[in-house]
Design goal:
Elements (H helix, E strand, L loop, with lengths): L6 H17 L2 H8 L7 H9 L18 H14 L5 H15 L2 H13 L4 E3 L10 E5 L4 E11 L6 E8 L2 E8 L5 E7 L5 E12 L9 H37 L1 E2 L2 E2 L4 H29 L5 H25 L10 H14 L4 H20 L1
Parallel strand pairs: 1-4
Antiparallel strand pairs: 2-3, 3-7, 4-5, 6-7, 8-9
Helix pairs in contact: 1-3, 1-4, 4-7, 5-6, 5-7, 7-8, 7-9, 7-10, 8-9, 9-10, 9-11
Length: about 375
């Protein structure tokens, strides 16, 4: 078995690493976090110029037509720099479904502009606030949506939101431009200082041209899987960099005349964090690879999300702890990694829910084999 990345994948990862390292320094992130939109436009433009915003978008719409493994490599590098750009919202929650299930007119309207960095997309896919919170009524020509979707990422930056709706008792996926009459957005600050939005629909007009062709349940299940895979990739990058920063800190910081890293207790905590990161990395890549190959990956996704949620939190707690008093300083860079992972750990279900899902899948598989 070959676990190595291909040359193209390595080059893509190296390119992403260089862009994020050069443009998303700790000082730059702090600067962007003080702005109203908390969006690094310069970094976004650099990602667009390099073609990285179109990783999973077909080539005839300006993209690279690659898969979830490659997108994971990009999200991992974003996590390493906790870079304030809506990469997850646009590439996972927004453009993926349009690329795969959109009508030709929808692809022409949205995908080229995403690749060029001229517009941002997002999606309201959270299963806890799914289409049951939206009501759809026919008006003779189309439909009108009323209801609410909570905690939608990058909503203030986006041009449109993808949202599941129920039409004639069937679930469909709608692309709703945010300029439509009847849409109202309330901005909220989240744990990691990101700005999300509570989006309310007040009889918002919808017609067949706004709907994807595929059944909504199929699209929803797929987006739920890749969203969790993408979250795990971001957590992986956050944890890797947090441990790197911690290793440097405990090697340079001296206590009683010797570096902190020479203390056995410190070394053991760092070693445990390293093992946890390996677990996150292996399960995340397994889930991404299985998805790209078209395998049934529900168990792999649940396992990866459990590792990212459970082990990810252990890693950032340990790395913050090993920074001592400076780790408790909310202005210290290590605290930012802690906040990101704590938020991502519970996004789309935390460790407990992921473990429960995995247990149910294993049980169902065993029962099917015995019947």
């Amino acid at each position: 078995m070959n676990f190595d990345f291909s040359e193209d994948q390595i080059e893509l990862s190296n390119l992403a690493e260089k862009i994020f390292t050069d443009l998303s320094t700790s000082d730059r992130v702090t600067e962007v976090e003080k702005t109203d939109q908390r969006f690094d436009k310069n970094l976004w433009e650099a990602l667009a110029d390099s073609g990285l915003l179109g990783i999973t978008i077909p080539e005839n719409y300006g993209g690279l037509d690659l898969g979830m493994v490659e997108l994971s490599l990009l999200l991992r590098q974003q996590g390493r720099r906790v870079a304030p750009v809506p990469l997850f919202a646009t590439s996972v929650l927004g453009s993926w479904a349009i690329s795969k299930y959109g009508k030709n007119a929808q692809k022409e309207q949205w995908l080229r502009e995403v690749c060029s960095g001229n517009l941002i997309l997002t999606g309201a896919w959270n299963p806890q606030t799914n289409a049951t919170n939206l009501t759809t009524e026919s008006d003779g020509k189309g439909w009108r949506i009323t209801g609410e979707k909570l905690a939608v990422p990058a909503i203030a930056l986006s041009s449109a939101v993808l949202v599941p709706v129920t039409i004639d008792e069937n679930q469909r996926i709608a692309i709703v431009p945010l300029e439509k009459k009847g849409l109202h957005n309330t901005i909220v600050e989240t744990t990691n200082l990101e700005l999300q939005g509570n989006l309310s629909f007040d009889a918002v007009e919808l017609n067949e041209e706004d709907l994807l062709d595929e059944e909504g349940e199929i699209v929803f299940q797929e987006i739920s899987q890749i969203a969790k895979i993408g979250i795990c990739a971001t957590v992986l990058g956050c944890c890797e960099e947090a441990l790197t920063m911690t290793a440097q800190h405990v090697s340079e910081r001296e206590q009683f005349g010797r570096p902190l890293s020479t203390n056995q207790g410190v070394a053991l905590q760092a070693a445990d964090a390293h093992i946890d990161i390996d677990g996150i990395r292996v399960t995340q890549l397994q889930a991404a690879w299985q998805f790209d190959k078209g395998f049934e990956c529900s168990k792999a996704v649940a396992a990866a999300k459990w590792w990212a949620s459970e082990a990810g939190q252990r890693v950032v707690v340990a790395t913050q702890h090993l920074h001592g008093g400076t780790g408790a300083d909310t202005t210290h860079p290590i605290h930012r990694y802690f906040l990101w992972v704590i938020q991502l750990a519970d996004t789309l279900g935390g460790a407990g829910k992921s473990l429960s899902t995995l247990g149910k899948l294993i049980t169902e598989e065993a029962l099917n084999k015995t019947n």
